[in-house]
């Protein structure tokens, strides 16, 4: 008989996979032209709306900036909200905000777009902090790594499916008419609603066998907010925050900058633009494989060797990817179409896709172990811990989107290498301290 908490984790991963398949597909469509420039095989939804409705002045980057700002600020409030309503209701409310944001494209208006971006940012803080808290409640010291890997693999399947959908649905289209847009939006919203139903089916976590645990919300909202601030000031969380910052920087790099750099490098060939979609697919494959591997082996590896070998492996994978990218793509690639060359002449599409896979696999190493660390070591304060994680990660991602507009590719790679090394070291420092205290922590954890 499948344990109750494992079913909860599968429902949680399935709900997030469906919701983010819809949202990331929309994000790819919404931002594609802003990130990649004028693509030969597709125009964006926003550009198509502007063509049909010239009065619409919405901008994908502005929407993204608003979402990140609202997400960053809301993360400090979410522990108080979760202490009052619990993680399951918080995730359901957060999922609804994603559906509302996608529905706003049925009535294209700049105020509605940016207003829904604010709502979505607040909802994203709820759904992600709630997810971390709920995953922690469904896990023990022996299962947290496994559950983190399972959830991460299922979540990242959304990147795989979303990029494939965009690649095949809009290939060869220069304009997406209103009817097609409406059909796409309706399908995406329907998929997200199914994901919301999955989250609504989540059951109360159990502690002993299939006995539901009595979850206490006795912490007052004000105390939850103050606890988050105090936790943020602790030495361990300060060290981990450097790792979180790196994950945010790498996220914005491989989700935006790297893909655009491939598409803008003319020397790759006439199919350079099409490799942008495949870039997302290969990143998704790396993410899913990493999640599956750590889901199957997580408990065994964490118990025997700890989390640090996996994070070190992720750091090595990322360093290798950055080095190959440095050799393969020119410094001017992020800024627009360029005929410039780097050290590998001509640039290799195979190496570019290989780097995409390495970036995804390395990201899975970092994120699954961050989830395992937060859900295990900070089990008594999961809402506060995960809100800090998402706050630092989103602030770093927003900062990366800003400096990537001014810094060449090679400068960005140097920043990533430096922060990647420091972030790996700081995570290992915390993990080494946890290993020394493991017997005590395990006894406390089981209580």
Automatic annotation (TrEMBL):
Q: Where would you find the membrane-spanning parts of this chain?
A: 7-26, 60-77, 89-106, 112-129, 150-170, 182-202, 237-258, 278-298, 310-329, 349-366, 387-406, 412-434
* Entry's Gene Ontology cellular component terms: membrane
Cellular compartment(s): Membrane
Topology versus the membrane? Multi-pass membrane protein
Keyword list (alphabetical) reads:
Glycoprotein, Membrane, Transmembrane, Transmembrane helix
Q: What Pfam families does the entry give?
A: UNC-93
**UniProt family annotation:** Belongs to the unc-93 family.
**Name of the protein this chain belongs to:** UNC93-like protein MFSD11
What is the organism field in this record? Anopheles christyi
